[in-house]
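Class prep. Write one:
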Amino acid sequence: MRINEHMVRAGAAWTAVAATGPYLTLKLLWLTGHPVGAGDPGEMDRLWLVNLLTFGMDAIAVALALAFVRPWGRRAPAGLVAFPMWVATGLLGTILVALPLYLLSLLVLGPESADPDDKGLGGWVFPVVYGGFAVQGLALITAFVLYARRRWAGLLRERIGDLPDSPTLTVQRVLACVAALLAAGVAAARVYWAFGGTAGVPQDLVDGRSRGVAVMNGVTAVMAVAAAVALLVLVFRVGPGRRLLGPLLVVWTAAGSLFGWGAWQLVAFGATTTRVTELRTAVPGLTPLVQGAQVVAAVLVLAVGAVALTERGALRRTAAVESRG
């Protein structure tokens, strides 16, 4: 049984590494001045910083996959593994949800009409990139789940009522409520944009909006609600007899999605609209405000989780010392 689990974890990790190959290759070509698949070579020059950042993000995914199968991965500080995997789960998990919904929309509603003047990426780039992301997401998350089962098995077996009633529980609840309010605002704005609202959206994005963007807005709204509800369940100990694993997975993935995509959109907008030569390309205040609210809400969730887990670990160590004494 243990050998089989190790083989599955290793297979998933190496599959994740292999799945990064096409994306890293494409980004490397773009970074070195080879605009393969780009209709407008000059656009790759303007997106050099964005391409460099995304290349680095996928390289981190390779390092994570190796950490899940190599001996040094078990000895690495928990935060050094958990934080980047939290972000990766949010980014890739969102794609795993949004991609099937987008493909379903193509089957039901048909393909979107193409702009004849559009000089964007070639038609083959989307399936190569997002197909790779889907495989990478499934493989990396599988490897991490099996890694977490070995490293944090005790936590995953606990029930909600087993969480300690610590001195900071009131603070955790206040932070959770603030995060929930921010998440509610994010969800409202994203639902509005998903159904065609244009307030707060740059005019050039309004002109070029697509079904894929609408799907992503809808999925982000769901993630915001899920993160808030799951966190409130945990801090207010709703259903103390239920397993901790369910709401923990929800809040982990949903908050990671809010942080990863919110931070990425802030960086991408900042990197591509630093110099505004036309008023229509300016980013109205509402767009970065919603993106910033996503990040702040996710950081508050992270803070609550970090405090709760730190206190849980301290209590366990104290109990172990007392039992030996």
User: Anything to note?
Assistant: The longest helix spans residues 286-324. The two ends are 36 Å apart (CA to CA).
